[in-house]
Design goal:
- It contains eleven helices and eleven strands.
- The protein has a four-stranded antiparallel β-sheet with strand order 6-7-1-8, covered by helices on one side. A three-stranded antiparallel β-sheet has the order 9-10-11. Strands 2-3 form a two-stranded antiparallel sheet.
- β6 and β7 form a beta hairpin.
- α1 crosses α4, α1 runs parallel beside α5 and α3 packs antiparallel against α4.
- This is Helix-turn-helix domain-containing protein.
- InterPro entries: HTH_animal.
Length: 320
């Protein structure tokens, strides 16, 4: 049975160690992994559009590949995880220190943290053999470093400067300009060589990554918002506390995402109508929806874009 522990004892000894180590190595690791990291949805779309606009990079035969790592919080046993982290720090550090703290000290702290995370279940105490609590930011940092080392095997298969490659936590996206059979064969062999990293794979001229549908239309990039056909439609995110305030912020975020993801004005308009209907279906007044949507277009100084569909006006609005 695979468990993802969520530890709520925020002031425990291991939690304090985790916070301290995370403050030490997270900025250092993020800087080193920056070239192959998507920081958010907008960052991903900017890099994808830049790739598509760069001459001779997106071809009619270009394929997209997504990898979803399914055991992100429990990638390997503790000793192997520590060895990988320490090897990364030693390789990237010039003086065998991170923020004036020796790497050996960091190794000792990681051992204290990983080997002493305990949790109880039905009056029995358990220790974790793999991973650590998903509620601790250090867990994500360690997994990111571990996958950074693992993904080198994929990067070695193509010329990095000719392709787009990036990862955000447990999701990888990259372009491919060789045969899909060759890529699939290599990734399946990688799965067998390193079975500790479990993942789902998608290769094709169209994929979805994050909440974006991405398609190569004979060398032209087409994108829009992706809606999971298995998910319940017209639902708002569950929030605790001041739901009206948080749903106000989510409405703005949903409209920004629609502009970010939709490469055509028609898709953008369809998406913002979908967002409006979602709020109306959940009991919000027409005045609430209308005032927020109008404020969105006023903020970007293009009220007419709410009704325009010509491509040039939309692309100008999208850049803003």
């Amino acid at each position: 049975m695979s468990l993802v522990p969520m530890i709520v004892a925020a002031q425990s000894i291991t939690s304090n160690i985790a916070r301290y180590v995370n403050q030490l190595i997270r900025p250092f690791a993020d800087e080193k992994m920056k070239p192959v990291t998507f920081y958010n949805e907008a960052d991903f779309m900017r890099k994808l559009i830049a790739y598509a606009c760069d001459q001779h990079r997106l071809k009619p035969t270009t394929l997209f590949c997504t990898i979803h790592v399914t055991n992100f919080y429990s990638l390997d046993e503790h000793h192997a995880m520590i060895d990988t982290i320490i090897s990364f720090l030693q390789d990237k550090s010039a003086n065998n220190k991170v923020n004036q703290i020796s790497i050996n000290t960091i190794k000792n702290l990681l051992q204290l943290y990983l080997y002493n995370n305990l949790f109880s279940f039905q009056n029995k105490i358990y220790t974790m053999k793999k991973g650590s609590p998903s509620t601790m930011p250090l867990t994500e940092t360690l997994a990111n470093i571990y996958l950074y080392d693992w993904q080198k095997s994929i990067l070695n298969q193509f010329e990095y400067n000719q392709e787009l490659f990036g990862r955000n936590t447990d999701r990888i996206f990259f372009t491919w300009n060789q045969s899909s059979e060759k890529l699939d064969f290599y990734l399946q062999s990688l799965r067998q060589r390193q079975p500790n990293v479990r993942f789902r794979l998608a290769i094709g001229s169209n994929v979805h990554y994050w909440d974006a549908y991405i398609e190569n239309r004979k060398g032209e990039l087409y994108t829009r918002v992706y809606h999971d056909p298995m998910a319940l439609r017209y639902t708002l995110p569950y929030v605790v506390g001041h739901s009206k305030m948080q749903h106000s912020e989510w409405l703005r975020s949903a409209l920004l995402r629609a502009v970010c993801y939709c490469s055509s004005a028609e898709d953008f308009h369809q998406e913002h109508i979908y967002v409006e209907l979602t709020y109306l279906a959940n009991g919000y007044s027409f005045y609430f929806v209308e005032s927020h949507v109008q404020h969105f277009f006023d903020y970007f100084e293009d009220d007419a874009m709410r009704y325009r569909t010509d491509p040039s006006s939309y692309h100008s609005f999208r850049r803003r």
